[in-house]
Amino acid sequence: MAFRRSVLGLVAASAALLAPVGAPAQTLKAVMHSDVKIVDPIWTTAYIVRNHGYMIYDTLFALDAKGEVKPQMVDTYTVSPDTLTYTFTLRDGLLWHDGKPVTAEDCVASIKRWAARDSLGQKLMTFVEGMSADDAKRFTVKLKSPTGLLLFGLAKPSSNVPFMMPKRVAETDPNQQISDFTGSGPFVMKTDEWKPGDRIVYTKFKDYKPRPEPASGLAGGKVVKLDRVEWLAISDQQQAVNALLAGEIDLIEQPAYDLIPLLKGDDGVKLVDYNPLGFQYAMRPNHLIKPFDNPKVRQAMTYALNQTDFLQAVVGDPDYYKPCKALFVCGSPLATDKGMDGLLESNFAKSKQLLKEAGYDGTPIVLLQSTDLQTLTNLGPVAKQLLEKGGFKVDMQSSDWQTVVSRRARKDPVDKGGWNLMNTSWVSADILNPVMSSFMNMSCDKAPFGWPCDAEMEKLRDDFAREVDPGKQKAIAEAVQVRWREVVPYIPLGQFYIPIAARKNITGILTAAAPVFWNVEKKK
Amino acid sequence: MSAEPTLLAPAAAAPLPPGRTLAARLVRNPVVAIGAGFLLLMALIGIFAPFLGTLDPTAINPATRNRPPGFERTIRAEDGTATTYRHRLGTDTLGRDVYSRVLYGARVSLLIAVSVATLSLAIGLLLGLLAGYIRPLDGPIMRLMDGLMAIPGILLAIAVVSLFRAGLPAVIAAIVVPEIPRVVRLVRSIVLSVREEPYVEAAIMAGTRLPLLMARHILPNTIAPLIVQGTFIAASAILVEAVLSFLGIGIPPETPSWGNIMAEGRNLFRVYPHTILYPGIVLGLTVLAVNMLGDGLRDTLDPKMTGR
Amino acid sequence: MAGYVLRRLLAAIPVLAIVAVLVFLMLRLTPGDPAAVIAGDNASSEQIALVRRTLGLDQSLPAQFAIWAGNLLHGNLGESFFFKKSIGELILGRIEPTLSLAAATMLIAVCVAIPLGVVAAYRHGSWLDRIVMGVSVLGFSVPVFVIGYLLIYVFSITLGWFPVQGYQPLADGLGGYLHRLVLPATTLSVVYIALIARMTRASVLEVLNEDYIRTARAKGQVERKILFRHALKNAAVPIVTVVGIGIALLIGGVVVTESVFAIPGLGRLTVDAVLARDYPTIQALILMFSGVYVLINLLIDLTYSLFDPRIRH
After folding, report:
1. Which of A49, A55, A56, A229 has its CA 20 to 30 A from that of A411?
2. Would you kindly state one Gene Ontology biological process term found in this protein's UniProt entry (chain C) (predicted)?
3. Do B248 and A400 touch (CB under 8 A)?
């Protein structure tokens, strides 16, 4: 038997290798919500890559636990009296993982690459006159007109985060992925141990200089208390929980809701609510083709749906969800119920009436549903049931998530592989204002899939970007929400929270928009 | 030397024994009786599912998810009347009734078993006859079959499923394609050996036309081994469907099949075992029954192979 | 003998070529667009088109096939669309777990199934025989993942004897390696135990009725010796065949078992690649599995002559 012989061979060979490999004392093994397959956080908006970015890269600014912008790599900055010129000075002692110092030139190149990809960055660039490195540690940004977006943009907490990279890396074409993983963050990626589909490994960056302040949110001192962090790919949720209960791993970023009772009942494990703003579900209609090219039909959906049904079906435990009609996230400064009365209450009669007025002919709506993403799978059937009660005909088409992703990019009619409706979710930190929220982008062809088109909404978003006064910003946000009711670029399906499940001896998990591993400690 | 010595054996068997004694022998074989009886029961349950106290198997109810067997729920109709429904086997992650899903699931799972078996036998028979009888086609067909056979079945199935829109036809096609080569090989080997028989050679010499030759001499010899082969294909089809669902590329979850009820329930195995347990038991027993039927048929139709 | 092997290897080339064409065509006809998957969440149509161009997906099908086939002939499997690594490297990194799982599975299956089958044949018709046969039919009737979950529940969670999941490379120590291999291999071996036990029983049964066994019995030879020296040896050809087919079929079970136990092997790589529409990786993997299948078939045929001197190639 060929195989048996090879086993004997392996056994014999291993005898020589039996000397154990000493594992570092403080290794944290985590199961994240997905496997790290792509490693360019500027190129993709995938959250797992953002999380990877927070491991190995650092940011110029960051949001603290109160949501305020705080300098991170920047030591000090000055603003000219006309608020058009910003000069930034980097902290002392910032090093890349290859030992070279971080320079102002690196930062300028990194901001440019980020701004080419990120939707907020693109908006920001319309205000920027020019950026230049003044010396090794100082750089200047000149604006055409005042905006609050610059500092907020550089502190953007979620995808795409403006991570700083060495100039040689940051000069990669923004549409190509980087292949050099040198950062200046608190952890170093072990490229030789990275096995997509299995694990990605980080070690402590010994020469990282944390800020003196205590850690708060994504700001403050990034003090690393672990020697090594391993992210393991365990695709089977039940197995991940089993492994945590057995102590084979230390942490699960997003345990499945239905398994939480199992975790709550175990003394060795705790649940940590690290993300106070949580996540939101969203439903996106395709504005290009019938019937959702008609705003009345989109409005009908806002009457037919209700958030509680979705949240119950996916989350279940009311401790972890909150119906939330505020487009800019419940619990955030711009949260408001304005313009939302009567909506999302499953008023089927009203929905049917609007459909009648719109002349909806009963053509089935193609709803894309993914079968392999636990957090999204249950949304489809609920949507189908509610919409059908509201007078729609729904053809729910199931496939794996990647097929949904490739299909939603198509502008064709449904019989040629197009689509009408799809569901997704995002972290609330991505939609804190009208400019950040990518589904609010109604710039027609330039908007992301769904391609909504509305000049008035675009003007409001532009006004928001120009406004620096928080009170006036809020007024604009309210106006956006009122306009939303008319044009319905997307529909929020509710807010939810996913706790981290960790062994009891893991402490110091920070409250932030993204799960980060500095400050985390593994006690004996 | 063929890789399937066992499959060559039936070729030598005489045409089917006269019907009456065969039927009698089949009924008297307890293994066949038990297997067939159970399958008949499952088929009846599937057909009459709407009359067996079931709800709409796709009706979701987010408020009562993952309830244990025996959970009672008040259902309000649109006219305001309320009835109490007892979820005999509990509810699943969307609050659908597991009992109803398992019963309706019999339809889909049995449909898959039967259609996969029928289709792969039909296509395999056609290709096998062509390859075995028409010399110029033998090479191309068999090389194509060698190629298909060399691709691991489950991988081929995964690839075929992703070819189409996920759904019942895609899943059936995905399970059929990898089964075809084995049927073709079996049929071809039978055709080749029957051709050598003196009575067939005589018929050819006498100028019997091809369709008649096929119908009279060749097809009858293939029936017994094909029926046996078909039962095993049916059994494996039910299992493969479950595996495809497990990998997240099976029948869309709103259509209940035993495989996708289990696949949906598997993540909750430790918390709510009922969603995987009941469909699992029914699926296991059904596959067992099909296998028993296959074993029994083989013993009866082809005594030479008894016990294999 | 050498001539025979050479001829068989040459005959395998067209089979592999057919596999290559089949797989290539099938993937290109799939609706999924790897470019859209790779371009990421908020990619515009232009960005997707750009990715398509960089991957060479905008070229005609024959041109794409020619490039791929040309690289193959130079031993270059290409680069994965998705993982941005050379496929050769990707596959090499995944071989050890899958090979270990396959080997351990077949080892368990053969060690358990052959004695069971022999005993069942010897005690033909007894309750022991019936139990062995009944359990073996049951082994066919339960999906692999259910067996996996049951074993995990009993042996990992309740008894705590084995780890719940994971794989430890052999280089990190033999103890941990074996410890983590036991459950997945046992899970996967159930169906092969059933298969091999049935085949062993049937062929031993057939041999036991042959004249030379009767002669040996008449000469007063010890039963054990008759059973294992004469009967089993002569029944070996079909058993070896079924073991060989088992190895070739193993990959299907490996896909599921690796998913359940989070083993970073070729099976999971294949599923990941299919779901990500990573064409070059899928093509390379299926071609490799087909090659292994052809080789195993050749090995089966060669072993025939070992067991049965009458078969000469």
Report:
1. A49
2. transmembrane transport
3. yes
Give C-chain residues touching A236 at CB under 8 angstroms: 165, 259-260, 262
CB C153 within 8 A of CB B270: yes
Our CA-based measurement puts residue C219 at a distance from the nearest CA of chain A, in whole angstroms, of 34
Residue A25 pLDDT level (bands cut at 50, 70, 90): low
CB B174 within 8 A of CB B161: yes
Q: Which residue has the tokens 């609010």?
A: A440
Residue with tokens 């809020």: A474
Q: How far apart are CA A522 and CA A30, in angstroms?
A: 12
Mean pLDDT of chain B: 82
Residue type at A89 in one-letter notation: T
Distance from CA of B288 to the nearest CA of C (A): 5
Which residue of A311, A378, A400 is in closest CB contact with B93? A378
Higher pLDDT, A271 or C254: A271
Domains and CATH numbers, chain A: 39-171 (3.90.76.10), 187-274+499-522 (3.40.190.10), 279-496 (3.10.105.10)
Cβ(A286)–Cβ(A292) under 8 Å?
A: yes
Residue extent(s) of CATH 1.10.3720.10 domains in chain C: 97-311
Report whether B5 contacts C241 (CB < 8 A): yes
Residue A495 tokens, joined: 């807010």
Beta strands A279-285 and A521-522 are unpaired
Distance (Å) of CA C81 to CA A41, A254, C3, C25: 18, 28, 41, 18
Q: Which residues of chain C have pLDDT under 70?
A: 1, 30-32, 40-44, 307-313
Dist CA C238 CA C231 (whole Å) = 13
CB contact under 8 Å between C264 and A372, yes or no, is no
Q: How far apart are CA B227 and CA B233, in angstroms?
A: 10
Q: A517 near A500, Cβ under 8 Å?
A: no
Using CB atoms and an 8 Å cut-off, which of residues 400-439 of chain A contact chain B? Answer: 400, 403
DSSP A226: -
In this predicted structure, the answer to whether residue B307 has a pLDDT above a threshold of 50 is: no
Inter-residue contact A436 to A430 (CB < 8 Å): yes
Going by C-alpha positions, the residue among A102, A106, A105 that lies closest to residue A205 is: A102
Pick from A13, A36, A21, A17: which is nearest to A253 by CA? A36
User: How many Å apart are CA C240 and CA C225, to the nearest integer?
Assistant: 20
Quick check: pTM over 0.80? Answer: yes
CB C254 within 8 A of CB C267: yes
Residue A183: pLDDT band with limits 50, 70, 90: very high
Reported as a single tens digit per residue, the pLDDT across C181-221 is 999 999 999 988 988 888 888 888 878 777 777 777 777 77
pLDDT beyond 50 at A5: no
For residue range C51-92, list pLDDT tens digits in order.
788 778 888 888 888 888 888 888 788 888 777 778 888 888
Among B60, B165, B271, beta carbon nearest to A397: B165
| Distance between CA atoms of residues C151 and A224, nearest Å | 39
Residues of C in contact with A37 (CB under 8 A): 82-83, 276
8 Å CB contact between A503 and A252: no
Of A238, A371, A400, the CB nearest to B253: A371
The pLDDT score that the predictor gives to residue B176 is 94
Alpha-helix runs per DSSP H in C123-151: 127-141, 144-151
Looking at residue C64, its pLDDT comes to 85
